[in-house]
Amino acid sequence: MSGATCPRVDPQKPPALLTLTGNLGTHDPSLIAADGKVYLFQTGSRLPTKTSTDLLNWQAGSAVFSSNPSWIAAKVPGATDLWAPDISYFGGNYHLYYAASTFGSNTSCIGHATRASLAAGSWTDHGSVVCSGSGDDWNAIDPNVIVDDAGTPWLAFGSFWGGIQLLELDATGAPTGGAQRSIAARPHNGGALEGAYIVHVCGYYYLFVSWDHCCDSPWNYNIRVGRAESVTGPYSDRAGTALVDGGGTLVVAGDATWTAPGHNAVIVTASGAYNVYHALNASHANPTLRIAEIAWDTDGWPVSAGP
Questions:
Q1: Is the pTM of this model over 0.90?
Q2: For labelling, which of 37, 83, 133, 292 has a CA lying 20 to 30 Å from the CA of 57?
Q3: How far apart are the C-alpha atoms of 45 and 30, rounded to whole Å?
Q4: How far apart are CA 93 and CA 171, in angstroms?
Q5: What is the distance in angstroms between the CA of the first residue and the CA of the last residue of the chain?
Q6: Is the peptide bond before 153 cis (omega within 30 degrees of 0)?
Q7: What's the domain range around 122?
Q8: What are phi and psi of 71, to 5 degrees?
């Protein structure tokens, strides 16, 4: 999303949820518009995909890989499903980053694959970009790429432990070797945040994160946000609390019908801006795609429908 873009809240028509049909089973969505379609990537076996022409009706697509890349078994023993893919376009290629890990462990890696077109061809996997292990106070999962105003791509990632990290990438999508930065954490709450997603809008970089528990009791996943003038931070919430010290303004929380909403992405089309995430049903099962209109208020803070 361009920093010049600024979809504003219309008081006469507040953001609403879209009514979705088709194949909606989804965990950790990421999406991009290309070739007259929207392509969605999600957590699952070999990275499942979906497509839509209107954001409303969704069709299942083929998985990214026919089998897990061979490097995963050696670097992340026990990893089966691949997690939290992120899709972006820069340097003349589509870039897909994804995570290999096991639940509750920070022996994890983020992998990287590219292709020139989403309409034709296949993915070329480039192996791991960054890995974490038992001696690290961070976890190499939940990747997200933001391209800044200068055209430089940055990789945000992290879950629990020391929180969200940021690495500079080069035009090929590989790390430049620059310092790894911490941009969000919850040091007073057991580190319970993950799922970073950065967008540039209304003159700020907005860092969305998901707090608390996605996949176990008390099923209280929720979406938070902070903002900064630079992609590298410092990010603060609406109250002025730094995100590295546990700050985060609430954007979407669950209710009795849809629980644990989180791991969001934001997409802008000709018809508006949308907050895309998954939520569980009232029994905390069946992660399902949710898409809500999102806009920014007069103080420059996002307002999203939900859950």
A1: yes
A2: 83
A3: 16
A4: 9
A5: 23
A6: no
A7: 21-304
A8: -70, -20
